[in-house]
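Lecture notes, structural biology module. Today: joint structure prediction for complexes of two components.
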Amino acid sequence: MSNQAIGNSKPARHVPRTRPIDRNEVYVYEAPIRLWHWINALAILTLAVTGYLIASPLPSLGGEASDHYLMGYIRFAHFAAAYIMIIGFVFRIYWAIVGNIHARQIFLPPIHKAKWWAGIIYSVRWYLFLVKEPRKYVGHNPLATFGMHFGFIWLTVFLIVTGLALYGEGAGYDSWQYTFFSSWVIPLFGQSQDVHTYHHLAMWGMVIFVIVHVYAAVREEIMSRQSMMSSMFSGWRNFKDDLPMDKDH
Amino acid sequence: MMESFYDVMRRQGISRRSFLKFCSLTAASLGLGPSFAPTIANAMENKPRLPVLWLHGLECTCCSESFIRSAHPLVKDVVLSMLSLDYDDTIMASAGHQAEAIVTEIVEKYKGNYILAVEGNPPLNEDGMFCIIGGKPFVEQLRYAASNAKAIISWGSCASWGCVQAARPNPTRATPVHQVITDKPIIKVPGCPPIAEVMTAVVSYILTFERFPELDRQGRPKMFYSQRIHDKCYRRPHFDAGQFVETWDDEGARKGYCLYKMGCKGPTTYNACSTVRWNGGLSFPIQSGHGCIGCSEDGFWDKGGFYDRLTNIHQFGIEENADKIGMAAAGVVGAAAVAHAAVSAIKRARDNGDKQS
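The predicted structure, tokenised, for the full assembly:
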């Protein structure tokens, strides 16, 4: 079976010439997606650690205030990583539009298709050890798409919007962060305190996402019918059998 | 002709020199340029006195107590003479039916041309029977007095947000003024109580210019509520340095370090305490070594302990903060992932065994 028939991979542009075309693999994750993935992962790690330390600071330092700038540096790291995440997210949306078909999968789950929902149920059954064989997908399985869309994309949007609203408080009335975010987000929650609390809670939501994401990726790498983790480095998805592809979406 | 503010002041024995000083002070506290002092003076000399009706609902009178302690005695004198104190439960001379008749008189005589200042809020449960003024529910008096008012000032957190009487479970259904009176312009001056100088400045501005100062989206005057306590706190350098009070009376507390870890709500509270301060600019809570409790914020009674950094999330039924909930959830998910991995490994080993045999 030829590569073109297996997946929806884009034509030649992204396929290095040295690769044999009839190998059992598909080019799924384009270079910008992979770069974004790892930069974003680092940004999230930084944000979670520094965010936790902003809410529960390290033990107090002694001496004169002019000798230290610890909270200042922690907050700087948080804000810098936040901007990297925000700019990366905007870029990721752009790439969902201009990139290959897999680039927009997590943005547009086919919630109107019964087959996709059936695919989610099948995936759940696979994770509950109720079916022997997982299905074979070029992109994400339907459950993964569901999790990525609702557990990652919208959580990221929530974190970015509340985060910019909190940043706008310090930046002040005439800042764009205040104008576009703080001005409506804070009245929406009632006051600043609740925005802080839910921003913090959403961080834990992201931690949970990361646990599930990493675990699922490792497990899929080992137990599914296609490569997972290596694909996020190379971009290529290898298949362990040459049976036909399942297309739930 | 109705007498002007200036006439009233002179009658009360205030000299012209003191009057001009007050105008300059008011201009400065309102953040206006020096050229506005004569504008204020001119307005006060020529405009007829705008009556102010001061009603008290479900409240503790701390707003009035704060107001009459306005730092500059002059400010107090002047503003008190500006107000039509014919009706103010706490400080009016008359009582009984005589007093109540004054409300009717002002509402009818100055139709659409008086300011209604409300301290406290109306409870709505049981048709408002939890707060009775002159034999009638306060909510009725409020609605009546508001009907012809030019504008309304919501004094303090009670009138602005609900405050302690509206804290969970709010048995009397105490309701902030803006949710009861929806057809009048309302300015909120939250705080429990608001700072005296903030109150007098707001009244001065409204009476002088006959309009509200610039308000934020929640109806508070921007000049006093546009920044957090934290933004202008004199202990802020200790926060940035990472120097905190860890327990009361520790070395950090003695050195005046940041009270962030002691639950100071300065970072989430919009008010002017750290700039205007209290009691004539003498001090404010953080300066005296105690964290801000966030008294000018909506629902501050329901956000958990005043000494906790992370506050409660009530939606989870029991009182838990974001860290407890988050860590518990992450722990459960982590444990589930480990268990799932173990089952997966055993199953895979068994399946492989089956294949080989």
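Point to remember: Chain A has eight helices and two strands.
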